[in-house]
Amino acid sequence: YAPWCPACQQIELTWESFAKESEHLDITVGKVDVTQEPGLSGRFFVTTLPTIYHANDGIFRRYRGSRTLEDLQGYILERKWEAVEPVAGWKSPSSIMMHGMAGLFHFSGWIRQIHSYLTGTLGIHVWISYAIFILATLLIGLFLGL
């Protein structure tokens, strides 16, 4: 979820109720703020918000059903998750591919922080910051090419 997401705000009370019932369902329910954990959004290949996953014994399934409390509970109690095809091996959050994707998301956050430091703290104009990144990209490419 993300705090600014209207769909996430709409499901929040239902999700909190589901989390309170989780002990009776013998499951653990959690939520992750993708603005605070960009690596996880890359690892789980989150493209829409909110995104709900069911994980059991290291096998991940994406929940695409109704987001009512009754349907969420039914998904677990009636074991509807068994009929859902698991996430493909290469797209699984535990795969090497998604580990690399998480790294790219972390890297993009690092670049954003550097850009904010250059423009906000040092007061450098935005276009000069872009030019610094372009020059750095070219120099790194030349160095690796040699």
Automatic annotation (TrEMBL):
Principal subcellular localisation of the protein: endoplasmic reticulum
Coiled-coil intervals, chain numbering: none
Molecular function GO labels: disulfide oxidoreductase activity
Transmembrane segments: 122-144
Entry keyword Nucleotide-binding: no
Subcellular location: Endoplasmic reticulum membrane
UniProt domain Thioredoxin: residue ranges: 1-76
Alphabetical list of Pfam families matching this protein: Thioredoxin (PF00085)
Record's protein name: Thioredoxin-related transmembrane protein 4
Species in which this protein is naturally found: Gavia stellata (Red-throated diver)
